[in-house]
Write a structure and sequence with these properties.
- The complex is a heterodimer.
- Chain A folds into 2 domains: 1-81 and 172-253, Rossmann fold (3-Layer(aba) Sandwich), CATH 3.40.50.300; 92-169, no CATH class.
- Chain A has 10 helices and 10 strands.
- Chain A has helices at residues 44-51, 74-80, 97-104, 113-118, 121-140, 156-168, 186-201, 213-219, 237-242, 244-251, and strands at 4-15, 18-29, 33-37, 59-64, 67-69, 82-84, 174-178, 205-209, 222-227, 230-235.
- In chain A, a hairpin with a 2-residue loop joins strand 1 and strand 2 (18-29).
- In chain A, 46% of the residues are buried.
- The mean pLDDT of chain A is 88.
- Chain B is mainly alpha-helical.
- Chain B folds into 2 domains: 1-78; 86-322, no CATH class.
- The chains are: A alpha/beta, B mainly alpha.
Chain lengths: 253, 405
């Protein structure tokens, strides 16, 4: 039994009369790959947005790494060590791949205005370190040779990889991936599986929202299922797969 | 390779600027002999520079420096008025580069930029004029003006943080007007700004006993007031160019660019977008404040009229027309938009007389017409600006203007 990295307790969120999330409690352990699945509109992305501070939950709260997460601003979530990718890729389209990842280093560096203007030794060293780390990350996700291409000119799969590299640049403890395999073919999905597996091996906990049930069941240590904004079950894949309620939720029995 | 291309551009711009100077001189004085001589000299210089460039790339910079140095003297041949126009062109470059931080780098559409210019100008006017009887030295006033403008920048910035695009533009527009109307009405019950009459007899910039107004003899050369201000402004602008360039390629500059590209993604990677936007507003405003101070000192007079909405729009047009976020483009835009109306002012009348034999249209309205047309045409055929950054060009799906050598 490993330590709990993230505990969500009683998260609720509604938009007008629509209850997007209703009393969702789950816990993610250090070093695991945790899957979050559910039919379209089940509240998976809303949960993500609450976790990463884009939404303020209407009820409940998160505890991250042993301390409550006051998710009132997304940049604070990133500072605490929660990084995310987006379902519909959100890269800085007109910046190069390298620059995208360099932006990811922002939160772990501290160069200010005066440093930038004076361009002193400390700033130059930090800038070089940022560049090196960003290059390393691009190679880590296997798109090192595309460093100088504009993000929007990368292929779809490479854009997904770039988004992961940018998220990793913030040195997250928890990496949240929102449907990373959407729109990928079999080979690409397999490569993605290896990449996620590698990220976990290198010590980052992964929270994965995914539609590709095969990918989730093969990759995740534990899986939670959401339906109509409520948690249906949270268990190991083998149990989840056989659960009657999950089958109903997906097949609409 | 990129470097070589931009240097080529610099050369072209330098040459164009020089040509401008000579042509206006000939146009005004009718002194074609001198014009011819200078043209020949320039052509020789250009050829020499070109030859040098083939051997060493530095020649472009040298030529540029030479042109920049010679410009106020060449213009002076056509009259000190042209040196003043040149001064204002550089002042506008300064302002445009300040606004470029807000609009070009951080992507925040600011239509009230002139307010900070006004704050700087009035700060100088109040602290160095008989109005309050204060005559502080420039190294005290300029920082105060910059800090005050910066304060107003943050003041304007903080309520607009959640606004974007057009909404932000409207709010900043309102702010600019508020500041102007304040300046106009702060003469009662306590007379602070002297209302619509403005403040006169403002001290010039002075370092010790060296005053920037009036003519001074330096090494046997007679330097006029506008010529001295030219070099002062040139020094200030060089500083701002360096600051702009360094900011752009820094952690802060990347954060601004990220906010411009996708604010939500920028937040998600841990950028404190609130602080970064405020920083952009504050920095842009400080530059506006400094420019305002120099403006007040140079004019010797400020009144609320100088800070009307059309000035804000003009500066924004300089940034957009030149090439948003691209420093050489912004400089080009500012120079063109500040000099073109003047050239038209002096050129439209005589041109009509030459072609038709009489004045058909009032030169003043024709001037604005031509100016407006030029703006429309540029935006139609070069939507990314006259000299956009390579990225922005790709953004709009244009092919780069120059083939790579």
């Amino acid at each position: 039994m490993s330590d709990v990295l993230l505990a969500a307790s009683g998260i609720a969120k509604h938009f007008g009369g629509v209850k997007a999330l209703c009393d969702v409690s789950l816990s993610i352990r250090q070093g695991e790959i945790y899957g979050l699945i559910g039919p379209n509109g089940a509240g998976k992305t809303t949960f993500f947005n609450c976790l990463t501070g884009l939404y303020v939950p209407d009820g409940g709260g998160f505890s991250f790494n042993g301390a409550p997460l006051l998710a009132d601003a997304p940049h604070q979530a990133a500072e605490r060590g929660i990084a995310r990718t987006f379902q519909n890729i959100r890269l800085f389209a007109n910046m190069t791949a390298l620059e995208n990842v360099m932006v990811g280093r922002h939160v772990r560096t501290c160069g200010g205005v005066f440093g930038a203007i004076l361009k002193n030794a400390a700033t130059r060293a930090e800038e070089a370190a940022i560049r090196q780390k960003a290059l390393d990350l691009l190679h880590y996700v296997d798109i090192g040779e595309r460093a100088d291409d504009l993000a929007k000119n990368l292929s779809y799969g490479d854009q997904r990889r770039l988004e992961i590299a940018r998220a990793l640049a913030t040195e997250p403890k928890l990496l949240c991936l929102d449907e990373p395999a959407a729109g990928m073919n079999g080979t690409e999905t397999e490569e993605l599986r290896e990449l996620i597996e590698g990220i976990r091996q290198d010590g980052t906990t992964v929270l994965l929202i995914e539609h590709d049930v095969k990918l989730v069941m093969g990759l995740c240590d534990r899986v939670a299922v959401l339906d109509y904004g409520a948690l249906v079950i949270e268990d190991v894949p083998a149990v989840v797969q056989k659960d009657q309620r999950v089958i109903e939720a997906y097949l609409g029995a | 390779m990129k470097q070589a291309v931009s240097r080529q551009n610099m050369l072209i711009v330098g040459g164009l600027a020089a040509l401008f100077g000579v042509l206006q001189m000939g146009l005004l004085t009718g002194n074609y002999q001198t014009m011819q001589t200078v043209l020949h000299l320039l052509a020789l210089g250009g050829l020499f520079g070109l030859g040098m460039r083939l051997r060493r790339q530095i020649a472009g910079k040298l030529l540029m420096a030479g042109v920049l140095f010679a410009l106020p003297f060449i213009s002076a041949m056509a009259g000190q008025a042209w040196v003043r126009i040149l001064d204002f062109a550089i002042l506008y470059v300064f302002l445009a580069l300040g606004l470029n931080i807000v609009v070009g780098l951080a992507g925040l559409l600011d239509l009230g930029y002139i307010a900070f210019y006004a704050v700087g100008a009035y700060t100088w006017a109040l602290l160095a004029s008989p109005h309050f009887g204060l005559h502080l030295p420039f190294w005290v006033i300029l920082p105060i003006g910059a800090v005050l403008a910066c304060f107003f920048g943050v003041l304007l910035g903080s309520p607009t943080l959640k606004l974007r695009g057009d909404y932000l533009a409207i709010v900043t527009l309102g702010f600019g007007e508020i500041v102007r109307i304040f300046m106009k009405n702060l003469n009662a019950p306590i007379n602070i700004t002297n209302g619509p009459q403005g403040i006169t007899l403002i001290d010039p910039v002075a370092i010790g006993s060296f005053k920037f107004s009036g003519t001074t003899q330096i090494f046997g050369f007679a330097l006029s007031g506008p010529q001295k201000y030219y070099f002062l402004l040139l020094a200030l602008v060089s500083l701002v160019v360096v600051i702009n360039l360094r900011l752009q390629n820094s952690r802060i500059g990347r954060a601004w660019q990220a906010i411009r590209e996708d604010e939500i993604a920028a937040k998600a990677v841990g950028i404190n977008t609130r602080n970064m936007k405020l920083l952009a507003f504050a920095m842009g405003a400080s530059f506006g404040g400094i420019a305002g101070g120099v403006f007040a000192a140079m004019q010797g007079f400020v009144s609320p009229e100088s800070f009307a909405l059309n000035e804000s729009i003009m500066i924004l047009a300089m940034v957009v027309l030149g090439g948003m976020g691209h420093i050489p483009g912004v400089i080009l835009g500012a120079i063109l938009l500040s000099i073109l109306p003047e050239v038209l002012r002096y050129g439209v009348g005589p041109a009509q007389t030459a072609v038709f034999g009489k004045q058909l249209v009032d030169p003043e309205s024709l001037r604005l017409l031509v100016f407006g047309l030029a703006l429309v045409l540029v935006m139609r055929f070069r939507p990314a600006g006259l000299w956009p950054s390579p990225e922005r060009q790709r953004e709009l799906g244009e092919k780069p203007a120059e083939a790579k050598p």
